[in-house]
Amino acid sequence: MSVTAVTGSASGIGAAVAQQLREAGHTVIGIDRQQAEVVADLSSSEGRKKAAEQVIALSNGQLDGLVCCAGLGVTAPSSSLVVSVNYFGSTELIDLLHPALAKSTNPAITIIGSVAAGQQTAQPHPMIELMLSNDEQAARTAADELAQPHIAYSASKYALTMHCRRLAVTTGSTGVRLNIVAPGAIETPLHEASKNDPRFGEAVRNFIAPIGRNGQPSEIADAVSFLQSPQASFVHGSIIYVDGGMDAMMRNGNF
Ligand code: NAI
């Protein structure tokens, strides 16, 4: 059975992914700020390097899977933190762990994006280009200057999705598959905090998917389990929306 590192494993979607993989017999190395095999802060390069070193040690240098779930929503303490955790907390960790993944026979990475990324397709905010050019400090400054956490959030997820799709093309020959799951509204502590926020709560509560309900973390874990499995052996660079029809409602001609 495989060894998979899961970021954000202490809560919500990451916890559901970790549980489902463990129940299927896989070994999971959880990475989180607390209650995890690897306790690390993915908001800094130092924390990401510490996390990668520990994962490599725990997996004896050969990793079969990486699932990047750690993220902050619109109630995060700052927009710069959203940029650092949501974008760089995934992209730098992928870079650091890619050599260990490339040693496996059927390696796969799944990133948790968001249906919110689609909000940036019409007019991408300039901070996206700063993230894509790997300039963390400039992207953080741009995000804090804008002081609109919902834009920092959608921008971080758009940049992350674009980065991963580019990476899927350039690193495809290494055999490491890389895909993105884009959730809609999923009932987790992050979503609960957004619903209760005085700035965004009403919009979040009114954002109802065509299917008529919010999703559960286990429904995202189902998609992740598929993408990480040999059944998805030819799925690479794809975005799977698990959103109750939200993206179809918002952007039905844009695919
Ligand atoms: P959550 O708040 O339940 O879990 C997030 C986890 O990430 C927590 O365990 C937290 O400690 C960890 N984390 C945050 N900052 C960290 C840091 N600096 N270093 C290490 N770990 C850190 O949130 P949820 O909802 O499970 O979110 C998981 C992912 O799904 C996030 O990337 C989020 O943006 C994404 N997502 C969630 C949606 C939702 O409606 N819940 C919708 C679309 C995307």
Automatic annotation (TrEMBL):
Name listed for the protein in its UniProt record: 3-alpha-hydroxysteroid dehydrogenase
InterPro entries: NAD(P)-bd_dom_sf (IPR036291), SDR_fam (IPR002347)
Pfam hit, one: adh_short
